[in-house]
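Lecture 7 notes. Example A: sequence first, then its structure tokens.
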Amino acid sequence: MLQKDAELHTLLENSGTTPSKIMMEKIQKRRHPKGLQQDQLPLISFYKSAGGRGENYLDYWSIFNFDIYTRENVDVALRIADRITTLFDDEYQSLTQGGLLKGQYITGSDHDTDLENTYKYSIQIGITIGME
């Protein structure tokens, strides 16, 4: 979903013609981004926290963390966070295997990072998956 969003491509400084391998480096499914360097920014790293069963055995919920790194650009980080929130908050997505995914914005805040001249902002999205 993230890699296919045109607005997110623009915010990540991708014209849409950048090969998908480069976009995979800018949107990483991991807690600690691989090869995090200034020339890769802006960058999104996302990962799942522990979750559990919902009210019945067909529902599963979890919190997904999205860490956004920019070159000291607070505005871009917040715009990326807003776009991710728009894509997931109170939205239902059909899953290819059957079932539905529903997102809910939980919180967002800035964080310290060891990378010099880098701003880090994180948001949390609650995801519930319901099987049909």
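Example B, a different protein, same format:
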Amino acid sequence: MMSVRALKVFVKKEQGMVEGEELLLAVLNSAPVIDGKPTDALEPAAEASRWLRGLGGCGTTAEREAVREVRGALHRLIRGDSTDVDALNAALGHARLCPTATSEGLQWRLEAANDQELAVRVVLAWSTVREGLPGRLRPCANEECNLFLVDHSRPGTARWCSMAACGNRMKARTHARRRRTGETVPPSDPS
């Protein structure tokens, strides 16, 4: 069991991050494309078990499959490929948030089967990030990249998972294409 400050967004003042954001991004970004080849932190099973335990899970095969289902559903939902939330509802199906009153206010405790708790926490984190930072959770604009980002920039215009990797690569490609074709930069396009 873990304490969850769900139902209300808690913003870490020093980092500007919403509660659960690190967990959400760890799971969403657990299937990156490296050197043109898809990889997956949920494979092989032994490494996946260690990785899941590092996120606070129990590392079982059932947990790995639950997280894989939630990750796939969130990938499709965030990319706009689907509006199907059945996998998210399946993960949440037997979970409960139970309140306890304390002198500090309400404390929320997540109750879920051990091998479902991590998947439930990821869905709760997704919901919290969407509510706390509307429109800021998005896929990297590099179509060859499989990563996601939460945009913390003031104008909310971040496009790449990393300026050092995807941002520079995409800007270099755009520059090379413009030089090759003689295309000029439109005044409103900063790239």
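Note on Example B: Residues 61-79 form the longest helix (19 residues). The chain is about 45% helix and 15% strand.
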